[in-house]
Design goal:
Phosphoenolpyruvate Carboxykinase, domain 3; alpha+beta; 17 strands; NAD+ poly-ADP-ribosyltransferase activity; 555 residues; disordered N terminus
Length: 555
């Protein structure tokens, strides 16, 4: 095996479209020259470290490792996706060394060096890239690519540098000057800001568009990967079509409700690794079941119990035991009772738990799996060191539902307008849907529960007692040792953009723009307790405590 570190710059490569590169490359006569050109293009457009090569001369193979920068992900979002944001995602493509694009279709691997197990994003991205490359390979050849690359001569200045286009394509350059419309001055945009602007643009709508081949096949694959990564959660992990049930983007990948995908996922295990939830703590499972039960027992269940489960019948893999097209709330209730009856053995081996559930109801365990896997928000129990003491409850959770694209738009808006924190109260029966469809504007829709006295938008308040008033109470049979009470209240602490769009009517705020509200924390109270009713998020001491807990990310 030979590891190649040398390269030629891109403006020199354009002069050698049909001959091998010079220098130490000249001794390797078996390597196709188009491969060298494409590798050089990646290095010139991205960076020296954006690509690495391993040559296996004896078997005429070469591994091309493309390094995708994912530092644009927030730390908590990266945690939800099981991604290490400080190191690149590696796309490993294996080509024929001597034939390159004229040889066999390359194999694809997607991984991160430090993510040894459960790299769910990599499973989904590998499937997407394998399909993309297979489709491209049908009409791709070295001669065809050579012709495409000749078209780019008009982009070069006499000195050999690329005009205009390089700055727009190389989004990871350190500093870029951008002219402000209506202004004579320019502003400096950092790498992170530029990435945020890129991912918040309308280009996301066209994430499946085919990037140009003018800069080589490797650059095309990298650009397509960059388009797809921020939008993976918008597409089913099985069929790679947009979700049909969601009202807005959510954080984590999931299987769509199309019956073929449900069958493939549940009976064949197709893409199960991509949608497998992070290790969900017992208290979080308890909370998810409580929310499901509250929605199912609600008089408004036909409206708010959304989505309805899609669960394959364990005794008949060709049919759905729970089908959104044939809803049976009574059967769901019986299966849910099978879950809540096993609270004594929640600390036992998982195999024993599932066996016990099967005895109680054969659909109990499949329903529990659906409750966990259909949750598309990132919700984790906060350790005592990261809890907000002034909230006076031990049931505190980090709650993130916004995908990277929305978070990027939120961060861009925050830099322009600033942000603050406010509470959002909603009955526990509504959170089953919120965790799967997002916190959306329900004013003047069938989902609206309270009168929209101040117009259309998401209602918030800086005063805890006002939001607690909207949280309601619910009769609830606990599913484990954690939530003991039959009466639960819940409230979310959100971050909201303080632009002119935020309407303040005393202590009742209305935000008409869903992108300007992001959930941060979730609090649960038992026995009708609602904590301190006098908490004001505009109090400097309260704000400092919030920022301390979240690590000062929202300054």
């Amino acid at each position: 095996m030979i590891v190649i570190n040398g390269h030629e710059t891109y403006h020199k490569l354009k002069m050698t479209l049909s001959v091998p590169l010079q220098g130490h490359y000249a001794t390797d006569l078996s390597r196709h020259p188009q491969l060298d050109i494409d590798v050089g293009a990646v290095r010139d457009i991205y960076s020296e470290s954006a690509v690495s090569i391993r040559v296996y001369e004896t078997i005429d193979d070469v591994d091309i490792d493309l390094h995708i920068n994912v530092s644009f992900l927030d730390e908590e979002v990266a945690s939800a996706w099981k991604v290490t944001r400080t190191e690149p995602i590696i796309l490993r493509l294996r080509f024929s060394l001597s034939q390159y694009l004229d040889g066999p279709e390359p194999t694809v691997e997607v991984f991160q060096p430090t993510c040894k197990d459960g790299f769910c994003l990599g499973v989904q991205l590998k499937r997407i890239l394998s399909t993309f490359i297979s489709n491209q390979w049908k009409h791709l050849s070295n001669e065809f690519l050579n012709a495409q690359q000749r078209k780019r001569h008009s982009w070069f200045k006499a000195g050999g540098t690329i005009k205009k286009f390089r700055a727009g394509l190389s989004i990871f350059s350190p500093i870029t000057n951008v002219a402000v419309p209506g202004s004579r001055s320019t502003m400096h945009i950092t790498t992170r800001q530029l990435i945020q602007l890129f991912f918040s643009s309308q280009a996301l709508i066209h994430c499946k568009s085919i990037p140009t081949l003018e800069y080589g096949f490797l650059v095309q694959v990298m650009k397509y990967s960059e388009q797809r990564i921020p939008t993976l959660k918008d597409y089913c992990v099985v069929c790679d079509e947009q979700h049909v049930f969601q009202n807005g983007s959510m954080l984590k990948p999931a299987v769509c409700t199309r019956e073929l995908c449900v069958f493939s996922f549940n009976t064949l295990g197709v893409m199960s690794g991509a949608a497998e939830d992070v290790a969900t703590g017992a208290e979080v499972v308890d909370l998810l079941v409580a929310m499901c039960r509250a929605a199912l027992e609600s008089a408004r269940k036909s409206i708010i119990f959304d989505p309805y489960p899609s669960v394959v019948d364990p005794h008949d893999p060709k049919s759905l035991a729970f089908n959104p097209k044939k809803k049976s709330y009574e059967r769901l209730q019986r299966a849910l009772d099978g879950i809540t009856s096993i609270r004594e053995i929640t600390q036992g081996p998982y195999f024993e738990i599932t066996k016990q559930m099967d005895k109680l109801d054969p659909l109990a365990h499949p329903l529990l799996q659906w409750i966990i896997s259909s949750n598309r928000s990132h919700i984790v129990k906060l350790p005592s060191s990261r809890q907000l003491k002034f909230m006076h409850t031990s049931h505190q959770f980090l709650l993130l539902s916004s995908p990277p694209a929305k978070e990027a738009r939120f961060h861009t808006a925050r830099k322009l307008h600033g942000s603050t924190f406010a509470f959002h109260g909603s009955h526990i029966e509504n959170w089953h849907s919120i965790l799967r469809n997002g916190l959306v504007n329900t004013s003047y829709t069938k989902l609206q529960l309270h009168r929209a006295a101040y117009g259309k938008g998401i209602y918030l308040s800086p005063i805890s007692s006002i939001s607690f008033g909207y949280s309601g109470k619910n009769r609830y049979l606990p599913s484990s040792m954690f939530l003991q009470s039959r009466n639960l209240n819940c409230v979310a602490l959100c971050e909201v953009i303080t632009s002119n769009d935020l309407q303040k009517h005393g202590n009742i705020w209305v935000c008409p723009i869903s992108d300007h509200v992001c959930t941060r924390f979730f609090f649960v109270y038992e026995d009708g307790q609602v904590g301190d009713a006098n908490i004001n998020t505009q109090d400097v001491r309260i704000q400092k405590e919030i920022l301390r807990v979240i690590g000062g990310q929202s300054t």
